[in-house]
Amino acid sequence: MLVAVQPQTAGAIFEAKPKAAAWKNRPNRYIIASEDRMIAPEQEAALAQGIGATTTRLPSSHAVMLSHTKEVADVIVEAAVTAGAR
Fold it and tell me: 3-state SS of the chain?
């Protein structure tokens, strides 16, 4: 279970005041979970479009990183390779 390995969130993050949103000036990736029942896939697509993200759509529920580990890793690797080429 994800809850068994996910560390507790530090309360201080809720008080942090970021100076800039990285998505505004860096390439972005977004995985849309087409079978998500927590966040509507249409809303995920709209969020991704709003930040100008390159999207990948996977037939998954909300915890896409658990059910499609290879595909998620592939997106991360591709993002890292692309960022290194800049």
Answer: CHHHHCCCCCHHHHCCCCCCCHHHCCCCEEEEECCCCCCCHHHHHHHHHHCCCEEEEECCCCCHHHHCHHHHHHHHHHHHHHHHCC
